[in-house]
């Protein structure tokens, strides 16, 4: 799913000379990226939130991705500040671990909802310009946080080749466009329209091709990993230590039929409800009273699973029920050493 930011009556950031509009730059990049993917992988279904200059509300963008069961969501944007100095590219994943600078980016990108009809009802009273309002994202649940981080890392590494020079790294932010998506999702800020060097790169068709090529390379690497393992290899989580053994945070409730205890049958199934950078207690309200909450430490990320199931089918049935509370939750295989690769 390729999402070109803004569009229609929402121009996004505009260059000082008013010649370059974010909405046009990112649409061009989105279409270039889509073309490259289609050419290299005719079997991959590329979907755009928009392929022309039209306005699409933020909530609809994630909806389109969810309805199409997209495997990956990339939202493309340009940065802008009231200062010509800041430059470079950065990639956002949905998260609450953000500083003042990230908050400014989130406010700017989220403020698009003010152009939508009926936004107060739609976003539960959320005010994109009020920092206090962001508290509502605190209980944000995203089962795909670590895959999003992996893809963000691939995008950042790939864009190191220029033409936008400065690598500003991976950031977390409460971005409405990523909030409701139920697949690995990132928002890439490819460069600053407010910076003369970045702007020159973004204005050049050739350099846009180069940036689209870099995003394509990131996609290609992600696809390889994704297909190799059926899921993304945990070894590739950026800057994280190897996974530690399973450490149930609470003694699981007495199961009705005890789990088989022979070594061979020590594997069982659970539902991964989310993975976030925060350590939580099993009775945290975020788990909504789910049973057998387990926490797995994978470096920067804590993964949380609920339930204990003997068969994958039972776990899948539970995951289906849980998905209304935990969008994007999925079945994992566990044993005494932790989450097993599929
Ligand atoms: Zn934008």
Could you name the key traits of this structure?
19% strand; 6-stranded antiparallel β-sheet; 2 domains; alpha/beta; Aminopeptidase; binds zinc ion
What do you see in this structure?
A hairpin with a 2-residue loop joins β8 (294-298) and β9 (301-309). The protein starts with a strand and ends with a strand. It has 342 residues and is of the alpha/beta class. α1 (22-40) crosses α8 (205-229) and α5 (145-159) runs antiparallel to α8. The strands form two sheets. It has a six-stranded antiparallel β-sheet. It has two domains: 2-229, Aminopeptidase (3-Layer(aba) Sandwich); 241-340. It has nine helices and eleven strands. Mean pLDDT is 84; it is low at 230-264. The protein has helices spanning 22-40, 58-67, 100-110, 119-122, 145-159, 176-179, 196-203, 205-229, 312-322; strands at 2-4, 73-79, 89-94, 167-173, 185-192, 247-248, 268-276, 294-298, 301-309, 330-335, 338-340. Helices cover 31% and strands 19% of the residues. Bound molecules: zinc ion.
Mean pLDDT: 84
Any idea of the CATH topology of the largest domain?
Aminopeptidase
Number of helical stretches of at least 4 residues: 9
Which of globular, elongated, flat, extended, rod-shaped describes the shape?
globular
Q: What is the N-to-C succession of helices and strands?
A: EHHEEHHHEHEHHEEEEHEE
Summed up, the domain count is: 2
CATH class type of the largest domain: Alpha Beta
Task: Tell me about the largest β-sheet.
Answer: 6 strands, antiparallel
Oligomer: single chain
Second-tier CATH architecture of the largest domain: 3-Layer(aba) Sandwich
Uncertain segments:
230-264
Order of strands, widest sheet = 6-8-9-7-10-11
Using only C-alpha atoms, the radius of gyration works out to 21 Å
* Total E-strand runs: 11
- What's the helical proportion of residues? 25-40%
CATH-defined superfamily of the largest domain: Zn-dependent exopeptidases
Structural class: alpha/beta
């Amino acid at each position: 799913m390729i999402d070109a930011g803004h569009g229609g009556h929402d121009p996004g950031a505009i260059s000082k000379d008013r010649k370059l509009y974010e909405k046009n730059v990112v649409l061009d990049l989105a279409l270039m990226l889509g073309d490259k993917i289609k050419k290299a992988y005719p079997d991959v279904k590329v979907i755009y939130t928009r392929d022309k200059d039209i306005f699409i509300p933020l909530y609809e963008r994630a909806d389109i991705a969810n309805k199409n069961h997209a495997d990956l969501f990339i939202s493309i944007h340009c940065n802008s500040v009231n200062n010509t100095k800041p430059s470079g590219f950065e990639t956002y994943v949905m998260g609450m671990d953000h500083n003042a600078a990230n908050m400014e980016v989130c406010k700017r990108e989220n403020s698009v909802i003010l152009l939508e009809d009926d936004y107060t009802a739609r976003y539960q009273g959320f005010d994109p310009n009020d920092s206090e309002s962001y508290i509502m994202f605190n209980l944000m649940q995203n089962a795909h946080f670590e895959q999003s981080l992996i893809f963000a890392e691939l995008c950042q590494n790939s864009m190191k080749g220029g033409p936008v020079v400065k690598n500003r790294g991976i950031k977390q932010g409460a971005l409405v466009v990523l909030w409701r998506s139920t697949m690995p999702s990132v928002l890439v800020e490819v460069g600053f329209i407010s910076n003369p060097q970045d702007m020159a790169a973004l204005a050049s068709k050739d350099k846009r091709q180069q940036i689209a090529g870099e995003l394509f390379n990131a996609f290609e690497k992600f696809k390889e990993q994704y297909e190799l393992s059926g899921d993304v290899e945990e070894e590739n989580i950026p800057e994280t230590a190897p996974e530690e053994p399973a450490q149930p945070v609470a003694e699981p409730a007495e199961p009705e039929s005890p789990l088989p205890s022979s070594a061979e049958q020590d594997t069982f199934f659970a539902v991964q409800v989310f993975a976030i950078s925060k350590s939580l207690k099993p009775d945290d309200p975020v788990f909504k009273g789910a049973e057998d909450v387990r926490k797995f430490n994978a470096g920067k990320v804590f993964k949380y699973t609920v339930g204990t199931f003997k068969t994958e089918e039972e776990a899948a049935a539970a995951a289906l029920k849980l998905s209304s509370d935990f969008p994007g939750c999925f079945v994992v295989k566990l044993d005494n050493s932790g989450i097993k690769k599929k």
